Amino acid sequence: MDKITTTVEIADQSGHTTLQLTKAETLSRVADNGGSWVFADNQMVQPEQLARADWETVGTVRIVPGLVGGL
């Protein structure tokens, strides 16, 4: 199960990076980007949900900066 990879897109102020990562590598990237929003297969998920996901069917994971509203 550790060898299964999925496409992970990480967006930041310089653009975005596309990687092929294992579940453990992806969860590490999510932890490194605290406050970011995480989407799995176009659905927003919490890191705990991603940790429990079936990695064979998770689809593309996107890590994007969280939006903050206000004046």
Distinctive features:
alpha+beta, 5 strands, 23% helix, globular
Structure description:
With 71 residues, the chain is α+β, with helices and mostly antiparallel strands. The chain has one domain (5-64): Ubiquitin-like (UB roll). The chain is 23% helix and 38% strand. It has 2 helices and 5 strands. The protein has helices at 23-32, 47-52; strands at 5-12, 15-22, 37-40, 43-45, 61-64. Strands 2-1-5-3-4 form a 5-stranded mixed sheet. Strand 3 and strand 4 form a beta hairpin. The longest helix has 10 residues, at 23-32. The chain starts with a strand and ends in a 7-residue tail after the last strand.
Annotate the secondary structure layout.
Elements: E1 5-12, E2 15-22, H1 23-32, E3 37-40, E4 43-45, H2 47-52, E5 61-64
Parallel strand pairs: 1-5
Antiparallel strand pairs: 1-2, 3-4, 3-5
